[in-house]
Amino acid sequence: MGEEVVLRGQIGPFWEQSTPPVIAPLLKLCVGGCLAMSLMLFFERLYMGIVILFLKLFARNPHNTYKWEPIQDDLELTHFVYPMVLVQIPMYNEREVYQLSIGAACGLSWPSDRIIIQVLDDSTDPSIKDQVELECKRWASKGINIKYEIRDSRNGYKAGALKEGMKHNYVKLCDYVAIFDADFQPEPDFLWRTIPFLTNNPEIALVQARWKFVNSDACLMTRMQEMSLDYHFTVEQEVGSATYGFFGFNGTAGVWRIAALKEAGGWKDRTTVEDMDLAVRASLKGWKFVYVGDLKVKNELPSTFKAYRYQQHRWSCGPANLFKKMVVEIMRNKKVSLWKKLYLIYSFFFVRKIVAHIVTFVFYCVVLPATVLVPEVSVPKWGAVYIPSMITLLNAVGTPRSSSYLFD
């Protein structure tokens, strides 16, 4: 107890002497920087809100922006009129969901001789590997063209598995590849609603569907995740698709043109956001993306804090690392317009992937609490209350039913 009193006696005078000349100016600088970033984030949210309003008022959607016609049967060509589709399902110790995901993929409505289901199993648990392989054999016995693929090591993790899966000889027969993570279950008509965009529009590389969360009501954490991700799909993906023909691939529930995937350099494991990496590289080659918001694929949100923390760490650190690797390449690119370059650098990467995370943690968790200890520094009400409140309300537009949680 005596040592604590002595320590407080030493810290008190030091704090009082150093606050006016050192701490206060530094904190003011931090406050100014955070307020500037808050305004950047607010105007970005406001801009996207205006674009979405315009799209809704004028009924703009992918079906009247791009050519879309259902694939028609041809008596002479028979099933060859349908393109060959590869369906990839990357897995890693998926004991709870492997049957659902494989079953959903095998249930896709498409001519059986024009589709290949590829299960890429990176499981390290031998019992799970045996169960997944047995499930694949069960579907194969029903006449489904399903391949069970494993590899010697998990180099590159998911990106490595997808890259390895594209090396098999039978993949050379395929025109498109649909990707579904192990906890995703597409509806039977998924390919009928996505492939026509690719067959009718040779400039399109990717068709992305929306996620539908089957466990959003499991707890408060899943409800808040739903609100955040619904904003991403309802606003960010929609705006990117409608205005620039570009958005970040979500890594699942999408169909790629294999020629575009190869031209972009294929899968790389240089960051933890291999899906975003591939999307940016394909965009810089001049390819366009289409987001189909009314096509939903069922999946589950992380319901434990450990899984959620891992996911958020990947989503927050990966984009910043990718931005560092690609910013020069984006600026030097000559295939895309200056406007699209500015969108990629400023809006897509800097504001959404860097500024948003800095403001959320540094401003609200560090700088604002610190101003309480330094009376010489004050934060204007508009920066501490009004702007954050408006950003939060704009974030809730994708999930109106959860808006009440904003005020709890």
TrEMBL record:
* Cell compartment(s), UniProt: Golgi apparatus membrane
All copies of the Glycosyltransferase 2-like domain together span 176-371
What are the recorded Gene Ontology BP terms? cell wall organization
Q: Does the keyword Lipid biosynthesis apply?
A: no
One GO CC term on file: Golgi membrane
* Membrane topology category: Multi-pass membrane protein
Please provide the record's keywords in A-Z order. Cell wall biogenesis/degradation, Glycosyltransferase, Golgi apparatus, Membrane, Transferase, Transmembrane, Transmembrane helix
One Pfam family in the UniProt entry: Glyco_trans_2_3
Enzyme Commission (EC) number: 2.4.1.32
Q: Report the transmembrane regions from the record.
A: 342-370
Q: Which Gene3D superfamilies does this UniProt record tie to the protein?
A: Spore Coat Polysaccharide Biosynthesis Protein SpsA, Chain A
Query: GO molecular function terms here?
Result: glucomannan 4-beta-mannosyltransferase activity; mannan synthase activity
| Main localization category | Golgi
Q: Which reaction does it catalyse?
A: GDP-mannose + (glucomannan)n = GDP + (glucomannan)n+1
Q: Which family does it belong to?
A: Belongs to the glycosyltransferase 2 family. Plant cellulose synthase-like A subfamily.
PANTHER family, A to Z? GLUCOMANNAN 4-BETA-MANNOSYLTRANSFERASE 3-RELATED (PTHR32044:SF21), GLUCOMANNAN 4-BETA-MANNOSYLTRANSFERASE 9 (PTHR32044)
The name of this protein is glucomannan 4-beta-mannosyltransferase
